[in-house]
Amino acid sequence: MADGLLEAVRGLHLAHPELGPKPLLAKLREQQPDLVRAAPDECTAHRMRALVLSGLTKPCAREAGTRSAAELREAATHFERAAALQPAPALKATLTDGAAWCRRREAAVYHCAQRPLQKTCQRRTGS
After folding, report:
1. pLDDT of 39-76, one tens digit each?
2. Which of 26, 54, 56, 75 has the least CB density, counted as fewest CB within 10 Å?
3. What is the pLDDT of residue 94?
4. Angle, helices 89-114/69-85, rounded to nearest 10 degrees
5. Rg over CA atoms, the chain
6. Counted domains in the chain
7. Domain match, 66 and 119 both
8. How far apart are CA 42 and CA 115, in angstroms?
9. Nearest CA among 59, 72, 50 for reference residue 20
């Protein structure tokens, strides 16, 4: 199933290279809802979704900019699900680190949203 999902994403990206990650996923859900629903418990599907939501991949970071606390929270959840499904210890550790990074970043974004005028928030989020 992961191969089918990956091929669908590649094909859609080739057909619409101007789309960013979120519009691309929305279009994929619209065109092939069964394919997206059929892969919720596969490590690759969770990892791909986590990378897009977190902005840890360079194309996603450039196109989407700063992530919201909700996006980072969802990314951390997907990293944790992928880690739970991953049998290889080294990859499990990498996915767990990704989840921890997202949780720390989410806390920083949330903290800065509560106190938007402080200069420390601008340094902490990189804005």
Report:
1. 567 888 888 888 888 888 766 555 556 788 888 999 99
2. 26
3. 94
4. 170
5. 16
6. 2
7. yes
8. 39
9. 59
Do 66 and 80 lie in one domain? The reply is: yes
CA dist., res. 56 & res. 60, Å (int): 7
pTM listed for this prediction: 0.60
Residues 35, 63: one domain?
no
Could you tell me the two tokens for 31? Answer: 């065109």
The pLDDT of residue 100 is 95
User: In this structure, are 24 and 61 located in the same domain?
Assistant: no
Residue carrying the six token digits 């739970």: 84
* Joined tokens for residue 35: 């394919």
Tokens of 125: 């989020």
**Residue 23 shares a structural domain with residue 51:** no
**Which range marks the domain in which residue 60 is found?**
42-127
Structure tokens at 25: 């996923």
Residue pair 47/95 in contact by the 8 Å Cβ criterion = yes
